[in-house]
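Handout, tutorial session.
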Amino acid sequence: MKLQARDPTVTNCNLTDGPIAAGKQAVGNITIAGNYIDGASDEGIWGYGQNSNGSTKNLVIENNQVENHDLNNNGSAQIKIGVNGAPNEINGETDKESQLNAILEANDVKTAQVDGDIDTIGGGGITANFLGADYNDFGGFSPISTNKAINTAINADNSNFPNNDAELQIHGSTGGVEQGVDLSDDGDQFTALLDPGNNAVQLEVGEQQVTDEDVTDVETNDGKSLVDDLEFPDGVPSAVDIAVSLSSKGGTVRVDDLSVSGDNTSVSGYKMASTGEDRKVFEFVNVPSAGTVTVEGTVTVEEGQSGTVFGIDFADPNETPDSLTSDDDPR
């Protein structure tokens, strides 16, 4: 389906074996919303960012789902805008980085491209997506978080450490080790390390760190049993699923430069609005774990934050939560 008119709109369409495209002659304000595309040789949605005369376009691209794209195996993104230069606006955003984030946040896709730059949440063969409506049955957590073997987390405003504004945890309330941490810096560096060689997991923020020295013993460092036999009793599997979840209760959490396992999986940044207990999840599935798996980035927490700041969950891809069946597994 190719759009060529002034101010064209395509909404609530189901397309099979072809894309939605905004051609050069599609001018003005272009809206592509609420569509389902299944099967495309390259991009599921693509468009020119500029007209033949060089004038730029304004686009609204939201609530679209793209499946089974890139049948030609060219490494195409699911949504690509800016074939001949960047547009003026995408979802109200004018700079390229914000336009990429706007596409990824407003649509059920994993990859986006604007004017030659590709933002792949989960590049290097690792797939990922933002938290969506499919997770309502899990109380806002992803299936990875529901089926976690190891959880590392930063909890804000914890009374156990009155001289700090947060605490580092591994396994949290199940009896894991914990350490108070000061999150007063603007952009604290964090790193979560899963080390299969030593069967250990470690969370670092700034100069503070907390470690679980044995992820095979199904108990914590102080000998307490873990709920539901969390951890990897047979050792770290050859691949792991990872969920990085941000939550906000009265403040705002921002994570920048999120990367996983040294692959090119960076996410430039996401700032979560402080609306109740909203949660945002980045998923990375089937991450090779033959060597150390590293999740790192920077976290900024506004004053007034309470509850969990963010958690990093490691899970076995071969395990499925009891509340999931093969028909409704959103992964």
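The second record follows below. Compare its token runs with those of the first.
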Amino acid sequence: MSLPEKSYYDNKEVTEALSNLMVLLFQTVKLDSAKERAQRVLDLEKRFASNNLTAAQLDERWVIPEYWTQKQFLRQFPIISEQVDLSSVPKKWSIHKYTPELYKFTENALKNENLETLKDYLIFRLVHYTLDFSNPEWEQTYRKFRHQHLGFPAERRPLDEECTRLVQSEMGEELAAEMILTVYKSYPRKEFTALVEKVRHSLLLGIKNNPWMESQSRSHASAKIKNLRLGLLYPTKKEDWRFPPEKTFSIEHYIQNRTLRQKALQERTFAELKKPRSLTAWSLTPMAFDAYYNRAENRFYFPVGFAMKPIYDPEKSELFNIASMGSLIGHELGHSLDKFGSQYNEFGAKRPLFTEKDQKKFEEFSQQFIKQFEHADHDGNLNFGRKHC
């Protein structure tokens, strides 16, 4: 979808602005009947959005252990199967029933939708982010739309910053590997790790002294935190970097370079599917400006791109850095015991941590968070699971 969430398509002002944006793009690339093309594409997106799920529903669906075999998927969605080339995936791998509504919609669209509409949709999706420097009118209109309706800045960032962000997002692993030899050469990894361990220890004490958990729940929760693996700063072994296959990039052909990069990432994915999953390889670029918890790995990531001033300052005292980072680390570690994290054991297998009695208590306590959000005129259920520990 061109818009972030399905409810946006119910906003007439937003969809009219999006339609005008589509018209301008088709005019910019010199296609006739721009208004008709835009209307068809927008109608297609609206139908897709109506079949989509909300963020809360997607969170719920993610932890439901329902799967198709590849034969079942191929029989139900033959056109999609042909497009994604399942021949590259080991036959024993199943396919998660994450969004069967969208698979069905897409299968029907590829089979029955007007071909020109699908072509126009593809043109808009592929071209809309590549026209800014060659077409100033488009760039200004696109930026205004994103500012007014999607919350983006009114002015573009300096070009050197945009270039840095692009390289970071497209080639974060390679960039980080170079930077740890220079910028991060003297990074105090030992001190940073010790600080994270102190927060882990504090969380273990909280579980030990928890007044409402039964002993079985406390034991499982403690085991999960003790076994929680730390992906801190950057990988220390070459194989854990997960560098994609090398490609020869051009200094002149931007679109071709991005296409080559996507091909390399796809090749890496298919190659990894054919081997046992690595428990030490990183699933996050070390240059990411974020920290997160992966419940399938029972792993906490705090990349070096995020562990910088003012979040972490090695020149400041431990007390200062605990105050600065403690809530971030505690938040992410807390995800291991939240609504969804508590459904997985210390090995990342889907095994609930809490007894049925404690699960009911947990849900009762969670209602207080939901009420807090609703008091601030937000849908509390949309935030349920984001941090309930």
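Points raised in discussion: Residues 188 and 314 are 7 Å apart (CA to CA).
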